[in-house]
Amino acid sequence: MAFSARSDDQIREAQPVMIWIEDLHKWYGEFHVLKAIHLTIHKGERVVICGPSGSGKSTLIRCINRLERHQRGKIVVDGIELTDDIKNIEKIRAEVGMVFQHFNLFPHLTILENLTLGPIWVRKMPRREAEDMAMAFLEKVHIADQARKFPGQLSGGQQQRVAIARSLCMKPSVMLFDEPTSALDPEMVKEVLDVMIELAEEGMTMIVVSHEMGFARSVAHRVLFMDAGQILEANTPDDFFTNPQHERTKLFLSQILH
Amino acid sequence: MTVYYENVSDIRPPVTSTGVIGWMRENLFNGVFNTILTFLCLALFVKIVPPLFRWVFIDSLWVSTSAECRNIQGACWSIITANYRFILFGFYPYELQWRPTIAVVLLVGLLLISRNRRFWKKPLLYAWIVGLFTMEILMQGGWGLRRVESDQWGGLPLTFLLAVFGLAAAYPLGVVLALGRRSKLAVIRVLSIVYIETVRGVPLVSLLFMSAVVFPLFLPEGVTINKILRAQAAIILFTAAYIAEVVRGGLQGIPKGQYEAAESLGLNYVQTMRLVVLPQALKIVIPPSVSVLISAFKDTSLVVIIALYDLLKTTQATLSNPNWMGFSSEAYFFLACIYFICCYTMARYSRRLEKELGAPQ
Amino acid sequence: MKPVSSALQESAGKPIPFWHNPARRAVVYQVAALLITASIGWYLFHNTVINLQRQSIATGFGFLEKEASFEIGESLIAYSASDPYVRALLAGLLNTIKVAAVGIALTLVIGLIIGICRLSTNWLVSRIAAAYIEVFQDIPVLLQLLFWYALFYESLPPPRMALEPLPGVFLCNRGLIFAVPESHPVYWAMLAGFLVGCVLVFVVRRWARRRQEKTGEIFPMVRVSIGILVGFPLLVWLLGGCPTGMNVPELSGFNFTGGMSVSPEFAALLLGLVLYTAAFVAEIVRAGIQAVNKGQTEAAMAIGLKPWQIMNLVILPQALRIIIPPLTSQMLNLTKNSSLAVAIGYPDFVSVTNTTINQTGQAIEGVAMIMIVYLMMSLITSLFMNWYNRKMALVER
Description:
The complex is a heterotrimer.
Chain A: H1 9-14, E1 17-28, E2 31-42, E3 46-50, H2 57-64, E4 72-77, E5 80-81, H3 86-95, E6 96-99, H4 111-121, H5 127-140, H6 156-168, E7 174-178, H7 186-201, E8 205-209, H8 213-219, E9 222-227, E10 230-235, H9 237-242, H10 247-257
Parallel strand pairs in A: 3-8, 3-9, 6-7, 7-8
Antiparallel strand pairs in A: 1-2, 1-4, 4-5, 9-10
Chain B: H1 19-27, H2 32-58, H3 66-69, H4 78-89, H5 98-115, H6 122-140, H7 155-181, H8 186-201, H9 204-218, H10 227-252, H11 256-264, H12 269-284, H13 286-299, H14 311-319, H15 328-358
Chain C: H1 4-13, H2 22-54, H3 85-118, H4 123-137, H5 141-155, E1 163-166, E2 169-172, E3 175-178, E4 180-181, H6 185-215, H7 221-239, E5 246-247, E6 250-252, E7 255-257, E8 260-262, H8 264-291, H9 294-302, H10 307-337, H11 349-360, H12 363-392
Antiparallel strand pairs in C: 1-2, 2-3, 3-8, 4-5, 6-7
Helix pairs in contact in C: 3-4, 3-8, 3-11, 4-8, 5-8, 6-7, 8-10, 9-10, 10-12, 11-12
């Protein structure tokens, strides 16, 4: 926990705002999924969101890069407001990296091609340059030797690390993780978390939906607890785990920590 | 600048995203392009539906002579009402047509009962055997009923019989061929493959030609088989190849562990297949089998080409009657409705079944 | 009781009975299967020979050289009733190929459009496409083409009162007749121009890909390709002096002369086959695109790809693997169904063979020829399929 940046909370607060969400609401038909969400995330901040399934955690982070459309409120990412404007959406998506629960690698492309697809077609990078960069990121997630293989030939943990590298290739300023380890076999969780910790050490802004409490404790600046579409509690990991305020948080923690 | 609410749950979603308006925004007017499409579709509707409606219902005649029909703008449904007995039953003796009617009702009843999975037990099989036998008696006569030779059969009963008997008889043959194709014995495998691929590679028309003109040559002198049976044989041989492929798909879906478990219990090949593999495989392939039945049902219309009086041929015969010449649209429209209703019912059933069988039990 | 050891010895010493040896059993089964098949074959062959002798029908394909003495309604090659059967059959075969080729091209286009409509986010469009698929799949194709044929010869007026939906296009019970440009050497030059355009597009494509690899810049390939393919022939036409002479069909007596005409038989057959098969193609396209996981689109969106890039780079390459195999078999079905031409009198291969059988009585040879022709087409298709599946198989663990 040496790198933990908790002591410099003030410095962090002084950083520019990366994501600013005000009074966000979303409905599926009549069902109110997100209720009055207010959230400000600064550059370099790491936030873990937890909560029971169906509480709206995934929907919230999917709203941030417009995989879901919100009906009320404001989302501003890196100074750009999310509206129906296609250009804004594309700009934000290129800024925001996303890692999915089920990896979603492109099965018809090799690992290397998976990584270079975005840089070549969105960032308009020469192939050679894109490949060099992709190889560098593959080194970073420790699977450079698999570059010529297809996703179907890798294990779940390896695939998820490739997915992280794929997002990094876009040089994002924020990374979103949607339950990155919950589809993995237990023995593969660690290799993915290790990569995420390395990323955190480099100062990446991260929002992670996860139930990995150990990860939250060691890496997060803030832990949010969501239930029934609301953020019920937001606190530093120490306070969150040792002194939960809300009844439902206590119940949730007791269920998840046994 | 935080906003506070008494109770967040009191906030309603924006009107534009729920209810009728929300639905229309979401499904009809999402974006400029879709709005244009919606209006184009509506324009198309306005252009097509009212005239069609007029033609079918308002300007049409339902019961009249053909001469009266010549003077109207709309559809002449009289061609159906005046000839429906011939269209539905062909040359079956007029006063005996209650018999094929009962046969068809019996068949449809059996099919309807078979839809329900609760009845999928031995008694249903017996019911089918008895039912098919009764139909045979009703159609053909005997047992105190007057005999009607099969060259007088026609219309709807013939269409149904060709399809249902075709599938029923093709099934065992198809299963054998499928097993043969997956056999470890090279000769049997090759024979099965050659049969299946040959039949699937040629049009049904060529097999029907074969049944009409070549098949008689195959028989020893003095033996003749009537045309309907020969066409039925062609349909059976044709359908069997398709059933074989469907069943093979089912067999491939059975995990290897099932074979190993059966073998380790000491079951031999026949027992393994009969008791373990086929019951599972055949259940998987029921939905695609219904699709084969639909194809067979549609394909029976091809017997027109060798001049059997099925539903399509009786309609054509009616149309060649100078009185009723020129009303093809109405006649074919009526026929299309019959085929559509039958096929659509079966297709929907097949899809529902697929969902039910696919769901974990 | 015998001691165990001696019982063991006894059974070990005994030779395995012949019928308990799986290898020998296998041989017996296979020989039996072969014998049964062969004897059925021989029996049928034997009966056939006797029957043919009795009816004094000569066997063999010698009849092909004789004069056909029947006319064929339309043919791609010069044919007259005095030509031999073999030429009539060739004309029929070419007619089959013609209707199949045109039919396949049209079916692909229409099926693709309807399949995409079925996936439209516009509810109305999607429902209309669904209704089309359902209706046209569930009505026998023979009934459909009889319907279209009846519509042609029954509902359409005679040539003298022909409908003229567009100037120069006539619709009557003799078929569809339309104006075509007067033949002029420039059109051949335009065709050459088009071919040159194709080559150029190919070259530009390679260059654009190289350039993108080097500099990363994306070349607007689609727009430029269309420009080249349309522009080149247009340029040739302008340079050739803009010939505008049209060969307009004109009524003379009871029929049209000039222009190009499509017979009602061909039109009805084509319409029936295309509308029927397009419904199946649409369903295949829909299923193929829907089979690509929703997560794929989301992942592609998340790296900021544009909608057309998502379609081109992510969804289509995956969907095509699923779509192509059933699509090929639908194309084969269309070809096989073209044999229904015999019901409306379009002179395709089956129809001509049928006439030949009726005239010569050479039933076995005739049916055999039909089967061989279609089997060849199936064989070629399945060779293609095997090659494609091998090439496209996704690499998995």
